[in-house]
Amino acid sequence: MTHPAVDGPVRHTAEPADPGEPAQLEKPAQLEKPAHPEQPVPGRTPWRTAAVIAAAGVPVGLLWWLLSPSGLNLLTGDPDLAAGTNTATWLPRDLVLAGLCLLAGCIAGSFVAGTKHEQPRPGTVLLVVLAGVAGSLIAWGTGMLSAQWWGAPADTSANASVAFSLRSYAVLAIWPAAIALAIFLNTLFPGSGGKSRT
Questions:
Q1: pLDDT by residue (tens digit) across 152-179?
Q2: How confident is the model over 123-146, as pLDDT tens digits?
Q3: Residue 4, SS3?
């Protein structure tokens, strides 16, 4: 039994009807890129962040001298606490710096802590903690320098703490400790948001 002859070229089902038109092949579905891919925020590199944290020691030191007893004493305004010869001013003077360092450390730590989906790297954490140490030292030096420039001269023959100074050097550890604690707590209890801080 013979097959009838077919006029014209033989077409296969996969080929287009018109040989002049290219075959339309189905392309695999491609992953769509987000319209606004997340990019690193300019000016938020770890070194710049660390520099800002350390430089914050200057206003913290100025506030220490402005607010503290035996400094400018703006916090209490009590004239009895204006002179360093009153030993009752020594502890509050240290506590004012401790409170300012705690506040600065918590603020710095909250900015560095990251988000639920993106935690800071160990190198970044170490860098900003060291920046907190530098900020504490700068704050201490700025407060002492402010007292020398704008404060009244003090007779320190009886005790060195009569002059505007820091008696407990452990206060200087509060700022970096607060940064580390804020990052640690954020790691344990991350926020529910997935967006990076800007």
A1: 888 787 888 889 999 999 999 999 999 9
A2: 999 999 999 999 999 999 999 999
A3: coil
Quote the pTM value: 0.71
Q: Which two tokens stand for residue 15?
A: 């080929």
Cα three-residue angle 9-12-14, rounded to 5 degrees: 135
Copy the structure tokens of residue 47. 């070194």
Residue type, 59: P
d(CA 80, CA 77): 9
Phi-psi region of 67 (alpha: psi -120 to 50; beta: other; left: phi over 0): alpha
